[in-house]
Every structure is written in structure tokens, then in C-alpha cells.
Amino acid sequence: MDSAEFHAAVYYVVRQIPPRKVTSYGHIAKLIGMPRHSRHVGQALKFLSPTVQPPVPWYRVVSSAGTISSRGPGTNGAELQRQELEAEGVEVAQTRGGELKVDFGRWGWFPAPGTVDTGVEVTGDGPDGDAQDAEEEEDDNNQQQGGWPSSFQVVA
Q1: Taking CA 39 as the corner, what is the angle to CA 34 and CA 45, rounded to the nearest 5 degrees?
Q2: Which tens digit of pLDDT belongs to each residue from 66-93?
């Protein structure tokens, strides 16, 4: 799976998150069979065109802690995400530390992998003792440094 196919799978699954529900970047990665690529899910949503059709409700995806990720100093992306969620009726709380957080117990959407149509059939990338594990470890290191994995596996 190349990066365009990965992005398409992410968008396909994110479109299935019901209104008034949220999930995590990591859970989207698990649903598309790429559990070690949550940061790439975030990157796919970061580069989402606002004119893409049908629309992708990017604002329904938050961190694994339920927090809305900061977009960096001087940006309003986190506040925009808060507004979009609240417009749907999702409660967003501000923590003592100033983080914006959603209660997964109330608003979470976490279907089991294999129960959601991903638009593509993918194989997982977990460690299984094969030669590809070393390449996957390198991909994880690249991911932590902002790089793109060398490959994704797709089965037809």
C-alpha cells in the first residue's frame, strides 16, 4: 500500500465514525490493519483537503488519551476541532493543564478490528518473527522522526 492508498483507507474509515462519537488515531490505524502507524493517521488527516468529497469528519479523531492534539503555537486547529465536536453535541472539557479532552467512556467509538469496512483488505504489521520485523522496526524509527514507512502490505 503506498501513501495515497493509506490515506484513502484512513479517510474511508474516518467517514464511518458516527456523529457524536470520537476515536483515536491509533484505533484508526488498527482498523486499517496498520496498528503501528497512528502518527501516519494524524499526518493523513493533517494533509486532508477541505474540499474532499465526500467530506471526512477529521475532528472526530483525537489522541489515545482523548485529548485534542495541539497544532502548534499560533494555530487555531484545536479550537476549530473543539467547535466542530461541540456542534455535534460532544462535550469537550478543559483540563487543569489547559488541554481539551473528550470522555471516551461516553463518546468513544472503538469497534473491533475486522468489523469495519476499510475499503481495502490489509494485513497487520505486528511483530511475528519474520524478516520483515526489522524493516518494520526501522519504519517505526522513521515514523518517530517524521519519516514515511518504506512499505505497507496489501492483500487482494
Answers
A1: 95
A2: 999 887 777 888 999 999 999 999 999 9
Is 75 contained in some domain? yes
**pLDDT single digits (tens) 100-153:** 999 999 999 999 998 998 887 655 444 343 344 334 444 444 444 444 444 444
CATH at residue 9 = 1.10.10.10
Which residues fall within 8 angstroms of residue 102, CB to CB, at 6 or more apart? 22, 62, 66, 67, 68, 85, 90, 91, 92, 93
Give me the number of domains the chain comprises: 1
Residue 152 maps to a domain: no
Distance between CA atoms of residues 124 and 113, nearest Å: 10
Asked if residues 11 and 115 have their Cβ atoms less than 8 Å apart, the reply is: no
